[in-house]
Amino acid sequence: MKISPFLRVRVIPVFHLKNTSMELKKFLSIHILCVLVFVGFIYYVTIFIFLDGSLSLQSSAGSLHALIFTLVASLCVFSFFVCVLKDPGGVPSSYLPDVEDHEASDQESKRSGLLKKQCDKCSAYKPPRAHHCRVCRRCILRMDHHCAWINNCVGHRNYKAFVTLVFYATIASTYSLIILISSALHKDWDFDEVTPIKLFYIATGVVIFGLSLTLGTLLGWHIYLTIHNMTTIEYYEGKRAAWLASKSGLNYRHLYDVGAYKNISLVLGPSMLKWLCPNAVSHIKDGLSFPTSREYS
């Protein structure tokens, strides 16, 4: 029986509306609302109080700084939305690992190998680098961690967006701090008198400085992980593996470390022009297998 074109047109929008509503529900989180309010506050005080107070938005220098800060802040917000909405990557229901046992090929040994690759929580088979997230209640491909601030896991498909988010957020907060300091130096302060505006500058400066330091540290951490092609989980697992290897007189090397440039390309993409574009992820594969150092040795 053929379905008329009229009926098809009615079915498709309902499906898309359902998906859209599910995506919008991710924003119904206290953490995400706090992030959006905080970003709005930082943007407002940076442009309309600190920058306008030091250079004036009517001047060419003030307008240029406002434009640059707005661009960086917009890229930060865009990266944030990609992190929230992008699925980190779940294990396909049809996934079945390959079990190669060269020492024993009997059926019992193969069954034992499969059990080792099975998740204890959701009883699904786990590809290499996948881990179970107790918040999302499923296994996530190349899982790094679950982030409450994006109400989502950071995994295989949105890790690049997370790195660019931290990068743009670090640049924006540092830029805001510089504008705040510049504005404070332009004012004729009476250091013997405590005024509300002085307290506001000090309190805001402390907050933005703390934010810049925290984000800068986080950015440095994920640059290190990207260069070594590690996740946060793999880093701590690797520390234990390295300790065990040293006790046996062996050297430990992360299995997926294939060289700095290749590691960066696997995460950010082969084109340097697209490294800072959070949604340029055409290079991302299925996440079920990854190149190893053995293949490049």
From TrEMBL:
Any GO CC annotation of this UniProt entry: endomembrane system
GO MF terms, alphabetically ordered: protein-cysteine S-palmitoyltransferase activity
Coiled coil (UniProt feature): none
Primary localisation category: membrane
Domain Palmitoyltransferase DHHC: from-to ranges: 116-237
Catalytic activity: L-cysteinyl-[protein] + hexadecanoyl-CoA = S-hexadecanoyl-L-cysteinyl-[protein] + CoA
Subcellular location: Endomembrane system
Keywords from the UniProt entry: Acyltransferase, Membrane, Transferase, Transmembrane, Transmembrane helix
InterPro entries, A to Z: Palmitoyltrfase_DHHC (IPR001594), PFA4/ZDH16/20/ERF2-like (IPR039859)
Organism domain of life: Eukaryota
Lipid bilayer topology: Multi-pass membrane protein
Enzyme Commission number(s) of this protein: 2.3.1.225
Listed transmembrane segments: 27-51, 63-85, 165-185, 197-221
Similarity comment: family membership: Belongs to the DHHC palmitoyltransferase family.
Domain text: The DHHC domain is required for palmitoyltransferase activity.
PANTHER family, per database record: PALMITOYLTRANSFERASE ZDHHC16
Record's protein name: S-acyltransferase
Record lineage: Eukaryota, Viridiplantae, Streptophyta, Embryophyta, Tracheophyta
